[in-house]
Each structure stands twice: as C-alpha cells, then as structure tokens.
Amino acid sequence: MTTTTDAAPAIGPRALTWARRRQAAARFWQQYRGHRAGLVGLAVLALIALTALAAPLLVGVDSQSVTAAPGGPLEAPSSEFPLGTDQFGRSLLALLVWGTRVSLTVGLLAAFLSVAIGTLVGITAGHFKGWYSTVIMRITDWFLVMPTLVLAIALATVLSRSLWTTVLAIGVTTWPTTARLVRAQTLSVESRPYIERSKALGGGHGHIMSRHVLPNVMPLVLAQTTLVISTAILTEATLAFLGLGDPTIVSWGGLLQDAREAGAVSSGNWWYLAPPGLAIAVVALAFTLCGRTIESVLNPKLGVSR
Question: Is 245 left (phi over 0), alpha (psi -120 to 50) or beta?
C-alpha cells in the first residue's frame, strides 16, 4: 500500500526576501497609521503633489504669460480672481499652482543630492578608519560651522541663475548633518558580530558597506530625507526671494520677490504676500510631520507623540 503526500513548494531566497520586505512594509504602515500628525502631513503632501501634476489641466499653460494677462495689475481678490492678481495682471491662484511644481521639484532633487552625499560620506567615514575618517570628518565639521544659507548664496551668485544651480547650491551645502548621523549609525552597525564573520569569510569593503551597512542605515536615511526636503524648500524660497533664483520660472519664493519689488508690503496688498508664504509654511510643516512620524515608527525610543 502506497501513500502520497503533497509536498509544499520550495520558496526561493529571492521570493523569501520580497515576502519579508512586504511584511515589513505592512508593519510600517500599520504603525504609521497610528500617528495622526503623520497622516495629516501625508494627506497634505498627496494633495499638493496632485495639484503640481495637474497644474496644466487646472490653470493652463498661458497663465504664466505676462503679455496675455487676463486681469489688471494688483487687483484685489474677487470671484474671477480668488487670490487677486500680481503686478502684471496674472492670476495669483494660477501662479501659486505653477509654483508648486518648481518648489517641490527643487526640494526633492536638492534633498536627494544632499542625502546621497551625506550617506556616501557617512558610510565611508564610519567604515574606513584612520586618516581618511579624520580628514573627512574635519571637512564635515567645517561645513557644519559655516552658515548653510551663506554658502548657498555664494554658490548661487557665482554660478548662472537656473533651476539646477539652485538644486546644486542647496544639495552641496546641506549634507553634513546627514553625514554625521549616518557615520554614527555605521559605527554602531560595524561593531556587531556578523560584520566580523563577514570579514572572516572574505567579504570586501564594498560587500560589507553595500550588503550589511547600507540596508541598516536606510531607515535613518529615509527619515532624514523627509526633513531635508522641507529645509530645501525653505532655502529655495529664500534664494528666490533674494533674487538668486531663475527669473524665467514661477516659484513661491519668486512670487514673494515679485511682491517685494511691487511694493506690496508698503501698499497693503496682502493677497500678493500671504498665499505663497502660507504655501511654503504648509509644505515645510507637512514634510516635517511625516519625517517625525517616520522617525518615531523606526525608532520607538524617541517617543514622538501621536
């Protein structure tokens, strides 16, 4: 008499890895949903991102044109222009929607560049000991003590005024904080026993940094990225307000600069100043709320309130 049993199909290493990642993502989202502030920040960012993507459909491409402005200069808010008009007669609501695209693009690109530099410097400084770590960290300390805004202004002044100049100026001046955080985490990871076993089995520097150190510092990098984005958006607005941004594009900081040049402060044209300023504050606050929530989920010891 013979019996047959159904053997369970073998799960490959790659499938097992992806299954664990999906479980980790599900646990992360479950814990993230428990933070009301994080959900509010995420909802605001989703709404702003949709507005930026749908800007051509919502307000049209011609809304930025100076020669085809639909209204008169500095008109107060009305049913036709809910946020009034600028000094050229363009709808401020339309300009605010278009500025969303530029401000978010600069914030994301500058934050990516800043975090990439900081992660690379932090991991290598924590992995390689001796003179390399000493020199790199002294350079990092020098960038830390120098005012970030002053360095960004210097770079934006020397280089040509463009969107990429703004991204470069912000990215290469805001990485030191990320570098120090990642270096501290790298030193903690490399003190664990499995790193010694990997070295004993012949694991090289690249293998250890990419396969063991980088995955363990990525949660910290993710949380830091959301915080750097808000800083990048504020810095971009400051550079544009100082007249160091690209004059051919519409951004929230550029709108504030135009309002200052038009004398909106002295003439009491509040509708020219308030909307872009509030938009900058709301986006920066939303990214900060998301970043703090991610930190709390990944590191419960921080005790961030819900």
Answer: beta
Structure tokens at 181: 């955080």
Helix 214-241 to helix 176-190 angle, to the nearest 10 degrees? 170
For the whole model, what pTM was predicted?
0.82
Q: How do residues 206-227 score in pLDDT, each as one tens digit?
A: 888 888 888 888 888 888 888 8
Q: Per-residue pLDDT averaged across 231-250, rounded?
A: 86
pLDDT, tens digit, for every residue of 42-70? 999 999 999 999 988 888 777 888 878 88
Residues in Cβ contact with 81 at an 8 Å cutoff, skipping those fewer than 6 apart: 71, 75, 91, 92, 93
> Tokens representing 170?
């912000």
Contact (Cβ atoms closer than 8 angstroms) between residue 244 and residue 156: yes
Is there a contact between 283 and 235 (Cβ–Cβ < 8 Å)?
Answer: no
What is the C-alpha to C-alpha distance for residues 297 and 306, in angstroms, rounded to an integer?
A: 11
Q: Helices 252-261 and 214-241 meet at what angle, rounded to 10? A: 20
CB count in 10 Å sphere of residue 158: 9
pLDDT in tens, 269-289: 888 888 999 999 999 899 989
Residues 248 and 251: their CA atoms lie apart, in Å, by: 10
